[in-house]
Amino acid sequence: MDKPLIVNSWNEWDPLQEMVVGSADNASFEPVEPGSRPAVRNAPDTLFPTGPKSKEAIDRANEELDGLVRVLESQGVTVRRPEPHDFSAPVRTPDFEVENQYCAVCPRDVMITMGNEIIEATMSRRARYFEYQPYRKLVYEYWNADPRVEWTTAPKPSMADGMYREEFWDWPLEERHAKMHSFEFCINQDEVVFDAADMSRLGRDILVQESMTTNRAGIHWLRRHLEPRGFRVHPVHFPLDFFPSHIDCTFVPLRPGLILTNPERPLREGEERMFLDNDWELLEAPQPVLNNDEMPLYCQSSKWLSMNVLSISPTKLICEEQEKPLQDLLDKLGFEVFTVPFRNVFEYGGSLHCATWDVRREGTREDYFP
Ligand code: DAV
After folding, report:
1. Buried (b) or exposed (e) across 158-195, using 16+ Cβ within 10 A?
2. Residue 8 lies in a domain
3. Distance 300 CA to ligand 1 centre (A)
4. Does the Cβ of 128 fall within 6 Å of ligand 1?
5. Is the CB of 107 under 6 A from ligand 1?
6. Fewer CB atoms inside 10 Å of the end CB: C or N, the chain?
7. Which is the catalytic residue, given 14, 109, 195, 205?
8. Cβ(301) to ligand 1 under 6 A?
9. How many domains does the chain fold into?
10. What percentage of the chain exceeds 90 in pLDDT?
11. pLDDT, average across residues 105-130
12. Is residue 368 in some structural domain?
């Protein structure tokens, strides 16, 4: 029999063997730019900080990331980390300039494994244009180790002013409401744009959320790239989410037949059919322990980071330590639930699923939606 592939991951839940966990080293505050208007929580008129994060904020997040590494290693998972990168450095291309970059806390946003292929996303924000760099050494290692490993970088968009719809940020709520069914956000449809975290992998079937960070041209590129390789790409929409970005706080597959859903962000009518017709259960997550006002000051994500769980296998997963209601639900469903404190990572926009990138899981490509 052939040697197992070093890069092999077809879904979000098969038994985990190798994973990259992010790092807060050298992180900076995300700058204001056309694709992002960071705001201090509960203080929209306060200027958002700029430049490098404090040593304390970085140490607090790194401690929790190291705690996640320990749990994964205790379960036999090989853990890899990103290379250091100077995120305080400005970026200048022929099309834009930005005063600093962001961080390598959330590899999920940039990198995705599609079976035996590694894809680097285009990204959607200027400060994240070069965020693939901390992972390149690992990508070369995997790619050199096995000729069956495929490596694809998606076409880089210009990120010039013309790629963005900057008025988006100033739309009054009624206008947002009126426009929510057209799924037009802060990026327009001219160039191919996607963040890897807008995708969710279910064997042959790949869900892609249309969002502030993934446009229809991005989904079109993914379809043209993935469908000849035997995947089916399904665009999905959550029309009650006015600021959608990344699918993993909204629609989270836990094992074959079960998806954790966000009670405040139902699927667009009709899009649930594929799941219900195949006897998959869509199960609402309980309310998070924190409400939006209680989230960390500089965190740009919602309270629904609560449901950003990470599967070690179809029967074991990791949940944030304080999210007791979700832990109890998962326990009742028969999962073995591991917990780690992760609230200090929230400031960097993600929780357990965001802060990781799975390189190798057991299993092969299954067809769950025949
Ligand atoms: O609040 O649902 C989560 C972003 C994760 N990277 C949210 C966005």
Report:
1. ebeeebbbeebbebeeeeeeeebeebbbbbbeebbbbb
2. no
3. 8
4. no
5. no
6. N
7. 195
8. yes
9. 1
10. 96
11. 98
12. no
The minimum-distance atom of ligand 1 relative to the CA of 354 is: 6
Split at pLDDT 50, 70, 90, the class of 160 is very high
Q: Residue 1's pLDDT is what?
A: 58
Is the residue at 207 inside a domain? yes
- Residue 326 lies in domain: 16-361
| Model pLDDT, residue 137 | 98
The yes-or-no answer on residue 177 being catalytic is no
What is the average per-residue pLDDT within 346-352? 98
pLDDT by residue (tens digit) across 228-268?
A: 999 999 999 999 999 999 999 999 999 999 999 999 999 99
Active site residue 277: no
Residue 6 lies inside a defined structural domain of this protein? no
The reported pTM is: 0.97
Ligand 1 in contact with 304 (CB < 6 A)? yes
- For 50-61, the pLDDT digits (tens) are 999 999 999 999
Q: Which atom of ligand 1 is nearest to the CA of 106?
A: 6
CATH number at residue 356: 3.75.10.10
